[in-house]
User: Fold this.
Amino acid sequence: MTGNAPGLPIARATGATRHQQIAFLVMAAFFILAPAVIYPVFLMKLMCFALFACAFNLLIGYVGLLSFGHAMFFGMAGYATAHSAKVWGFTPELAILFGTASASVLGVLVGLLAIRRLGIYFAMITLALAQMVFFFCLQAPFTGGEDGIQAVPRGKLFGLFDLSDAKAMYPFVLAIFLGGFLLIYRIVHSPFGQVLKAIRENESRAVSLGYDVDRYKLLAFVLSATLAGLAGGTKSLVFQLASLTDVHWTMSGEVVLMSLVGGLGTIFGPVVGAAVIITMQNYLAQLGAWVTVVQGIVFVVCVLAFRRGIIGEIAHAIKKPL
Amino acid sequence: MDIFGIPTQALFGQLLIGLINGSFYALLSLGLAVIFGLLNIINFTHGAQYMLGAFVAYLLLNKLGIGYWWALLLAPIIVGVTGVVIERLMLSKLYKLDHLYGLLLTFGLALIIQGVFRNEYGSAGQPYPMPEQLSGGRNLGFMFLPNYRAWVIVASLVICLGTWYVIEKTKLGAYLRAATENPQLVQAFGINVPRMITLTYGFGVGLAGLAGVMAAPIYQVSPQMGADLIIVVFAVVVIGGMGSIMGAIITGFGLGIIEGLTKVFYPEASNTVIFIIMAIVLLIRPAGLFGTQK
Assistant:
């Protein structure tokens, strides 16, 4: 976690913004040009997970709440999107909207319970509630149990553009990813985001300054859940599949790992972390269960020796927040 | 004979399974509570260490021909020693940091341990034979009670109450409680607090290993046996609150029984009932039934 006090002086903040603008342009340029050389479906997967990790990081990095159950929003939105697109015949933008909205509703319910405790308890409560959602998905009729919802139609965007063509799907996913990313950037740098950081640094002080801390925390939790849902819904259309993998606790662990590797509390860290972990999974896929072992080792190494993460280290070296 | 339209045989059968599960919940949440009290970390590796206990017993039997009763003694020691190594090499580096790093580290360790065993033994379970002395069972008139299951319940009750006695009523326990309150002060009185922390972690982990050995003949020995269990135990810990040792024991057994009864009356909810209770407890008493809000 960056130990920066909230409310940076304005001069430094604008300087920092220019750095972040350059980094954003580099990232956007990468995702616009990359499909020429890298398999587009892989890139779309990466963007979905990057958005998921950014949403998770909003909570741990800027409010200091470690959710160990974010897979429930990711996976639940995936199911809702897939179901509405396949069974109800929603167009893709409506299906994703529906999926995202269901993640928000779930976020309100879980958030109301989870923000009653702090720190380690918060992590355990989110994990336990996510496990409950997992069992619900395992038993509920609309999720298809072990099979999941398969062959989800991508449909036509606004009834016009056929998304089964990767050339149309890619810009759609890119727009969602960049839109979600900018929204998170905006949230973090808004007065609301500053209050969140104040709560993270010293909750009692925020209370004594007259802020309704619980309301801020709940809103941050719901925003994070919603954006995780946006990522999950989009992923289910990319892969045309919603399955139990996306609601399982291992997925919650993976998103923690992505943010940790990239750098907790950095804007770009989760994107880099997602890229590292997804690439690693891709190359190690044939090794089976060793992937889990490698992920575990990455966890241990990061916690013991590399707590700032990749982007955190770079930001520390150039002394500018990224 | 029926109670609420449920045959007594089925009712008592599920009640027994509930008590068995409750024994393991109690043993595991007790270990978590003891570790949390002194180290202030939640040991995510606990489920993996429970699995490790079962596998040590399995390997002792199949590689060295050492049976159940010796395994009951040796496996917890072996698992406890690995815990001491983990504490010395890794956890001790994290005490000055945010407690969440301890959670992340132990989560990573759990992934490593479970992954290694899954590579070696696959996901399927290995059978572990019941000790001869405890095979068979007795007819209590209203139900059939297998001896081994009776043994598990009695043994875990004895271990739980023994641990409670040591911590609450002996001098050693007094040191431990004092170090939980104020480690600097206890250190100043000449007590080696870092060593106490190490041994406490070893003991808590050893309890998980012991639970693993006792579970081996009932459930199959499989690499994933602890992974889902630990999440339920976390919920148990949230319900009980981690402030009290006795609280962990009572909640563990109590929730096992409630889970068993749910299997009789409303089987669809048996997987989720503990999580639902957790949600209700959080609404009514956020600190947990036996906890104190800090």
Notes: The radius of gyration of chain A is 19 Å. Chain A touches chain B through 41 residues (CB under 8 Å). Residues 213-239 of chain A form the longest helix (27 residues).
